[in-house]
Design goal:
Elements (H helix, E strand, L loop, with lengths): L1 H17 L3 H12 L4 H6 L9 H38 L18 H15 L3 E2 L5 E3 H4 L24 E3 L5 H9 L4 E10 L10 E11 L4 H16 L5 E8 L2 E10 L16 E10 L1 H7 L7 E8 H9 L12 H4 L3
Parallel strand pairs: 1-4
Antiparallel strand pairs: 2-3, 4-5, 5-9, 6-7, 7-8, 8-9
Helix pairs in contact: 1-2, 1-4, 2-4, 5-10
Bound molecules: adenosine-5'-[phenylalaninyl-phosphate] (FA5).
Adenosine-5'-[phenylalaninyl-phosphate] (FA5) binds next to strand 5, strand 8, strand 9 and helix 10.
Length: 338
């Protein structure tokens, strides 16, 4: 059996020597060391060898198997090295080829504008407050002095979930939630999503508002005008004309709507501003004493102002966009321009 083992070993080494491909080398492994291989088959007969010879033949068989495995590994490594060398010799590297551009993400323009608004108000000493997007009828309407059947409800085309639960139509309910749990002085903004059953070139069913609320003991309409004018000058440039127009909100008295001179035509009148030269940007006013009474404040002791602005409206004016719906279509050709 010893001679036969050595003969097979010699035969395997001979085959390895002429093997030029990896598949030929692995073929040697299968042919000699595989489960049905020649050496494996021979070793099955070890049981028939005399007890004295068995350990000697066994040791030799082991040595041969290990040595053959080693030769196979060497052979595979040298074939692979030879192939790599050949490939490198023939391969040409064109270092003038442009690199592959990795597309990078960026913030949505609405998030950018929202952050810009927040930064300006933080700089003016405001803090950030939050409230739920799914609201009760009480916080969205009743506590803001808009009782059931009040015509002001028509200003908000509301998505109702049930009779009492709805998607908030503005960020003003955050005012109520905050005043219920905190005593004045208050100076907050509340950015967030709001929802109205509304869709055309200047309205979408979901949009963003930033609410502002400042309550204390000596706050005037002059403070409101000052804060909002500073904000609008920071946002649109120091030369931007700002106009306060009398308006109505059930939760502020007096109330105003604030316009800036149309950024498209600089106030001369164009299609975008309906030839008026002005564009509405936000609603504001002095907090109605009835709202203070509802949250448990003494209306004779506190005063304050509130405002609510639409982020999409500001983004449209800032970037000269005439259709609000473009912001939500996720068209990369549009979004990539910001
Ligand atoms: C309000 O929502 C009041 N809560 C604002 C307010 C707060 C007044 C505090 C007084 C005190 P109004 O419905 O006008 O008001 O909305 C405010 C702004 O949201 C508008 O000026 C406009 O910029 C924006 N807006 C309203 N509806 C839509 C809509 N469907 N799509 C996009 N923007 C809208």
């Amino acid at each position: 059996m010893k001679e036969e083992l050595e003969k097979l070993f010699g035969e395997a080494l001979g085959n390895l020597k002429v093997a030029g491909e990896e598949s030929q080398v692995t073929q040697v492994r299968t042919e000699f060391l595989g489960r049905k291989g020649k050496i494996t088959a021979l070793l099955r007969g070890l049981a028939n060898v005399s007890p004295e010879q068995r350990p000697i033949v066994g040791r030799l068989a082991n040595e041969i198997k290990l040595s053959l495995e080693e030769k196979i590994r060497e052979s595979l490594a040298s074939i692979q090295a030879r192939k790599r060398k050949e490939r490198l010799l023939h391969e040409k590297l064109d270092i003038t080829l442009p690199g592959r551009r990795v597309p990078t993400g960026r913030k949505h323009p609405i998030s950018e504008v929202c952050n810009e608004v927040i930064e300006i108000f933080l700089g003016l000493g405001f803090q950030i407050s939050e409230g739920p997007e799914i609201e009760s009828d009480y916080y969205n309407f009743e506590a803001l002095n808009i009782p059931k059947d009040h015509p002001a409800r028509d200003m908000h085309d509301t998505f109702y979930i049930s009779d009492e639960i709805l998607l908030r139509t503005h960020t003003s309910p955050v005012q109520i939630r905050l005043m219920e749990k905190q005593e004045p002085p208050i100076q907050i903004i509340a950015p967030g999503k709001v929802f109205r059953c509304d869709s055309d070139v200047s309205h979408t069913p979901m949009f963003h508002q930033v609410e502002g609320l400042m309550v204390g003991d000596n706050i005037t309409f002059g403070d409101l005008k000052g804060i909002l004018t500073i904000f609008l000058h920071e946002m649109f440039g120091a030369k931007t004309k700002v106009r306060f127009r009398p308006s109505f909100f059930p939760f502020t008295e007096p109330s105003a709507e604030v316009d800036i001179a149309c950024v498209m035509c600089q106030g001369n009148g164009c299609r975008v501003c309906s030839s008026s030269g002005w564009m509405e940007i936000l609603g504001a006013g002095m907090v109605d004493p009835e709202v203070f009474r509802i949250v448990g404040y003494n209306p004779n002791e506190v005063v304050g102002f509130a405002f609510g602005l639409g982020i999409e409206r500001i983004a449209m004016l800032k970037y000269g966009i005439s259709d609000i719906r473009l912001f939500f279509e996720n068209d990369m050709r549009f979004l990539g321009q910001f």
